Amino acid sequence: MIVIDYKDKRPIYEQIIEKYENLIIRGVLEGGSKLPSVRSLAIDLSINPNTIQKAYTELERSGYIYSVKGKGNYVIDDEEIKKRKKEAVAEQSKNLVRLVKSLGITKEEFMENLNYVFEEVGL
Amino acid sequence: MIVIDYKDKRPIYEQIIEKYENLIIRGVLEGGSKLPSVRSLAIDLSINPNTIQKAYTELERSGYIYSVKGKGNYVIDDEEIKKRKKEAVAEQSKNLVRLVKSLGITKEEFMENLNYVFEEVGL
DNA sequence: TCCACTGTACTATTAGTCTTAATACACTTA
DNA sequence: TAAGTGTATTAAGACTAATAGTACAGTGGA
């Protein structure tokens, strides 16, 4: 499920965070499902458990998972995931619109172009 | 023009790169205009000239500026800036559409929402 | 030509982060 | 109880970011 890219200059724990954020927000991991344990994932990826723990701690802090001592780490529930999805779309939309406006592109121009993008990007 | 955020955990040179990319792509800096010299900007920001040089080197490598020995660093010309603008919008559009599709949001739903975003985001 | 400014290159040093390693402790469940 | 879980701590090595100092080469004006 998770693959580390050693050509990537970013730290390993950040890569893990990003991968899980994507899996969760895209619905690949359902709400409430269990993440691999700190130790087992460390063995899987041939890295140190501390690195996994750092990623999980951060994922909990930013509200993607929650942890239960002695049991494991779990994806937040579907209700919460929906919120995250909306937040993600809202944020990226706002950024893009800001850029478009600052470049002096009209809404109509942009919207038309976006239609093509929708065609181009396959499912 | 440039302000360093020391609360930001990213390296200083990356912040400088990002700031200039924005200034250039948003047209605040016109094509061909001269950037502050490595030394003068270093004094302005109270940081080391080497850090500025690292930022400028990277900005040249990624095609936002060009440098002339003994003269200074200059913003690429307007023709090139236009290309960059289009690239930036295209890339961010594609990313957003990918996200929207992966979340199962329909084009119509998204487009309607985007109308509101356009209203919200002032000029 | 001289001088001040410019970009560029290099080495050395300090500080901080990333990662690994090895323990240890508390909690859960079979 | 035993195995598996999360969590915390300390130490070490590798790497990067940033500073400091120096040097060299090109530009342009006095």
UniProtKB/TrEMBL annotation, chains A, B:
<dbReference type="GO" id="GO:0003677">
    <property type="term" value="F:DNA binding"/>
</dbReference>
<dbReference type="InterPro" id="IPR036388">
    <property type="entry name" value="WH-like_DNA-bd_sf"/>
</dbReference>
<dbReference type="Pfam" id="PF00392">
    <property type="entry name" value="GntR"/>
</dbReference>
<dbReference type="InterPro" id="IPR000524">
    <property type="entry name" value="Tscrpt_reg_HTH_GntR"/>
</dbReference>
<keyword id="KW-0238">DNA-binding</keyword>
<dbReference type="GO" id="GO:0003700">
    <property type="term" value="F:DNA-binding transcription factor activity"/>
</dbReference>
<dbReference type="InterPro" id="IPR036390">
    <property type="entry name" value="WH_DNA-bd_sf"/>
</dbReference>
<protein>
    <submittedName>
        <fullName>GntR family transcriptional regulator</fullName>
    </submittedName>
</protein>
<feature type="domain" description="HTH gntR-type">
    <location>
        <begin position="10"/>
        <end position="78"/>
    </location>
</feature>
<keyword id="KW-0804">Transcription</keyword>
<keyword id="KW-0805">Transcription regulation</keyword>
